[in-house]
Amino acid sequence: MLKHSIFLRIYATVVGMVILVTLFAYFSTQVINYHRAQQYRESLTDGISYVITQGVERQTTTQQKKDWISDASDLLDLPLHLIDANQIELSSAEQKRIDNQQAVVRYDAQAMVANIYMGLTTDSKHYLLLTVNKIGERQMKALPIFILDYLIYYPGQEQQHLKTIQQHFSYPIDMRSVLDLGLDSEQLGRLRQDQSILLYRDSATMRGTTISIVSPLLNNPSEVLVIGPVPMFNWMPFELAAGITLLSLFLLSIGVYFAIFPLQRKVKQTIAALNQIKSGDLSARLNADGYDEMSSLSSSYNDMANHIERLIEAQRELMRAVSHELRTPVARIRFGMEMLADEDDYEFRQSQVEMIDKDIEALNTLIDEIMTYAKLEQGAPSLDIETIEIASVLSQVLTETRALKTGKDVILNAPSVDVVAEAERRYLHRVVQNLVGNAVRHCHSQVCISGGIQEDGLAFICVEDDGEGIAEADRERVFEAFARLDDSRTRASGGYGLGLSIVSRIAFWFGGTVTVDQSPSLKGARFTMTWPAVRPTVHSKNSK
């Protein structure tokens, strides 16, 4: 069945793992990028928040501080307020950032607004709150104004104090010669007009797109303040993409391994069992639980091993039985030949020749029985299946039996001529012939033959006799090759113990069974063979 197919199971597992790994990669990327974006926001704001807080703390009076904050808010075009520290609860990590003169950024993704909290070293009761709901050219060009406002208190020491505040910035801040920047005439003209300019650089390297802010210095037109380059946030940098990809492939390989591992284990078990058989140990069997192809293979292997073991055992029994059965007629032939050599009487010699001929005929019969049994025992014979009138086969055997003039009353209860079943006529005739012959040998006076189709769709033939019957304990053993329930009676009747074994094997290859019980009417043995009247799968020469 498709639902039990190994391919479909592995395919479904791989597809499921791909879906799970994809979801894992997606959510992992989201979580990682959430923390990366938070770190990026904090790294951008740490430096400027330090400069802003320094500007506020330089004001001596409260009113001056408020005025400075108001001017800064207008410059940034963003709301900047002085709030009470009691209005906000900070986590331990956020409090640590405040203590280290770093900014605390709380970003609302739905409103797309970031609240930046900045601590004041001289006023622990208040925080500066900058609400950022937009970042444009005006906000970026305001950054160098705050830095220059900070440096204005250190005339002649600008480079030194730039290095001091550099530790608060995650991107470079430096004073450079305007000639080193490679600016065009328009950009130089804007600098001479005391305007800041933005430089965008798009690199194919992992650094990606960057922005630099260039602002003129009032007292030194040959130099400019350069902030940046500031890298733009990259939602999928190479390191993240490579890491997520490798991790996803690793998880996918683990999932595929565990999907294939049961198959690998079963294959190893099968190889080990085959090696045991190769070494001569026929007892190895496989666990055939399940419904997939490997379970079917294990079941087929077990059937094969059972069949091989049974064939070898049957071969051994056959060799022992054949050697035993052949000794008697061969010994009689040898004795008869010796008698012929020592006897001159013609009539006596003629009788010895006739006895030898009977023994040779017995040998031929025995060899024929052995060959038939061996053919049916070793493997599936080639069956020429056809639709047969059951009454025709029964009538043929009746005619042949009466021609032998056995002195027994053989009765036929034949079905109508339109009762047919699928079988091979030669083997079906052999079954009826063996059963009738066996019944004639062991009956007292009467044998009854019948056949037909049962209500369950099984065809049957039945042979009953009025003999002594077969004990219930021996009814299974009677179908074994060379089995002798009553040795003296069997020998006297001329049997070899193969007839019923042949019947049993033919029933097996017909897909049916043969049973023995007591005849309800004649009180002797009743042998019944049943098989499907219509075969579901026909193994015939015509179907090849």
From TrEMBL:
It is an enzyme of class 2 (transferase). Pfam families: HAMP, HATPase_c, HisKA. GO terms for molecular function: ATP binding; phosphorelay sensor kinase activity. The chain crosses the membrane at residues 6-27, 240-260. Its main location: membrane. SMART domains: HAMP, HATPase_c, HisKA. Residues 261-313 form the HAMP domain. Keywords: ATP-binding, Cell membrane, Kinase, Membrane, Nucleotide-binding, Phosphoprotein, Transferase, Transmembrane, Transmembrane helix. It catalyses: ATP + protein L-histidine = ADP + protein N-phospho-L-histidine. It is found in: Cell membrane. One of its GO terms (cellular component) is plasma membrane. It is a multi-pass membrane protein. Residues 321-535 form the Histidine kinase domain. InterPro entries: 2C_sensor_his_kinase, HAMP_dom, HATPase_C_sf, HATPase_dom, His_kinase_dom, HisK_dim/P_dom, HisK_dim/P_sf, Sig_transdc_His_kin-like_C. Its EC number is 2.7.13.3. PANTHER family: SENSOR PROTEIN CREC, SENSOR PROTEIN RSTB. This is histidine kinase.
